[in-house]
Amino acid sequence: MDINNTIALVTGGGSGLGAATARRLAKAGARVAVMDLSLEASKAVAAETGGIGIAADVSDATSVEAGFARCKDELGSAPRIVVSCAGIGTASRILPRDGALTVDLFERTLRVNLLGTYTVLNIAAREMAALEPVDDDGARGVIVNTASVAYQDGQIGQAAYAASKGGVASLTLPAARELARFGIRVMTVAPGLFETAMSAGLPPEAKTSLEAGLPFPSRMGKPEEYAMLVQQIVENPLLNGEVIRIDSAVRLAPK
């Protein structure tokens, strides 16, 4: 799909992977709606990219619908490119030393990471299906979701996070198959260790230790490299129904 003059919406667009994606799509000519839980953060990135900033909670369907409505009102159409980067990173053992139950944390993680991703996908699919095709293939839109290598290599303490990202990965193919008749592609990117807010608080020695386990290149990924892959997915019409790891060939150890 040609990105130039196409409307895009990026969740989690106020920082990290989402902000880098919003910037790259805008540079390629897209008009971008930057959606984030923080209105201040979304407006800051929107100011850089010439788009609009929208505050929305992806785990709340009403909030997301309002965000899509604003995108249509202010940019003139529903987005044809939707990238879901909103999510939370959580860590907790199933059975902590104090024996406390961790059900609440598990539910919250799934609500944001999995239900939030599905909510955005659901609303995006409805809006895209109503658009006219843009090429001879009948393409109407592209939805790119974000999982994590933890969906396959979940470490101790990542049961909730890995389960939430595993759900995102697992819905990719059935969603792509169902939405194919509308000309909507669905893909998922599974990042490894990246320089984001989640990793920014690591002590230098911890970061060095993590990077030592990365085969090549032996460094954390840059958000711009995630954004580069998103652009390639959007532009390549044969990429559909697949999960792509972007991870320097890392396989996470148990802990």
From TrEMBL:
InterPro entries: NAD(P)-bd_dom_sf, Sc_DH/Rdtase_CS, SDR_fam. SUPFAM superfamilies: NAD(P)-binding Rossmann-fold domains (SSF51735). Keywords: Oxidoreductase. GO terms for molecular function: oxidoreductase activity. Belongs to the short-chain dehydrogenases/reductases (SDR) family. This is 3-hydroxyacyl-CoA dehydrogenase type II. It comes from Salipiger bermudensis (strain DSM 26914 / JCM 13377 / KCTC 12554 / HTCC2601) (Pelagibaca bermudensis).
